[in-house]
Design goal:
Fructose-1,6-Bisphosphatase, Chain A, domain 1; 5-stranded mixed beta sheet; D-Maltodextrin-Binding Protein, domain 2; globular; single chain; alpha+beta; 8-stranded mixed beta sheet
Length: about 300
């Protein structure tokens, strides 16, 4: 029995689909670790054409392709029909002639490629989420490649855990009670709150954030320039009070959003509406996530002004 099968067996208590999800993300963390150990993975293996998806981010690195190919192989081996919506392959129908109910799979196989290439060990993540045939969430998992944590959600709630070999340990439920227990009580004033928004690409994200939302951002006490799927985890854990996801790509949103929702965070678009997953891998989304309703309403009011 290889380590993937061992993980499936050990994760089975979380439910069959959640176990599969967790095992796939754990394997992606292994892939990243192996590439790092060999000092490879930062090579550009493909380039997006000028008219293609994500034109602001044209380089596709080996670490991106290897982690995505790992997801793809596991789905193909399942002999069930899937629609894979992923960062590099974009939209791919897998096993479409196989029996069984269709599931959608949203993947951000590796988030942090440029940091990886430059040897900066931070903000490295892998995320994967399953949706039913009506594109309603079933399970989601986000792995931290540096800390070796697996944060996940299913119908039972949202949970944090640590990956140790072929098992997960130190599992805990993510909810308001956890956040308070950790000393992360609800902050209701912007001047006391922390804000997260992706800003590592100046032209595409940092300058538009300041140009369009200066009057929102300037009110916060602290800012962290991360984003993507782990932004949802940061709010779910209460480490950050608000995740301000402006014009974020589809895979960055829908591979991790379910974790924040199941952890009891408040999740809407910038108009206060529910955010629904759709079959549009090229979509860009404005998403606001807060630890509590009072703070959330105050941020929405600032956005409207």
């Amino acid at each position: 029995m290889d380590i993937f099968e061992k993980r499936l067996k050990n994760f089975a208590k979380e439910g069959e689909l959640t176990a599969f999800n967790l095992a796939m993300v754990a394997e992606a963390l292994d892939t990243v670790e192996e590439l790092k150990r060999k000092n490879i993975g930062g090579e550009i293996v493909e380039k997006r054409m000028a008219e293609e998806y994500k034109t602001w981010d044209p380089d596709i690195f080996k670490v991106d392709k290897d982690t995505e190919n790992g997801f793809r192989r596991r789905l193909e081996a399942k002999n069930k029909p899937y629609v894979l919506l992923s960062e590099e392959v974009e939209r791919l129908e897998i096993n479409k002639d196989k029996p069984g109910e269709l599931q959608y799979v949203v993947a951000d196989p590796f988030d942090g490629s440029i940091l990886f290439k430059k040897g900066i060990p931070d903000f490295w993540y892998s995320s994967l989420a399953f949706y039913d045939k009506n594109i309603k969430p079933l399970t989601s998992a986000v792995g931290d490649c540096i800390m070796k944590t697996l944060t996940f959600a299913n119908e039972k709630g949202a949970f944090g855990s640590v990956l140790e070999g072929d098992n997960i340990v130190h599992k805990f439920k993510l909810d308001a009670a956890y956040r308070e227990k950790m000393g992360r009580k609800n902050v209701t004033e912007l001047k006391d709150a922390s804000l997260e928004s992706y800003a590592l690409k100046p032209g595409k994200f940092l300058l538009p954030l300041i140009d369009n939302y200066r009057e929102v951002v300037k009110n916060f006490k602290f800012f962290i320039p991360n984003g993507g799927p782990y932004g949802f985890v940061d709010v779910a854990e209460g480490k950050i009070d608000v995740y301000f996801a402006t014009k974020q790509p589809f895979v960055d949103v829908f591979s991790g959003i379910y974790i924040a929702e199941q952890a009891g965070a408040v999740v809407t678009d910038f108009n206060g509406n529910k955010v629904n997953c759709v079959d549009n891998v090229h979509g860009m989304f404005d998403v606001l996530v807060s630890t509590n309703e009072e703070l959330h309403k105050k941020v929405l009011e600032k956005i409207k002004k």
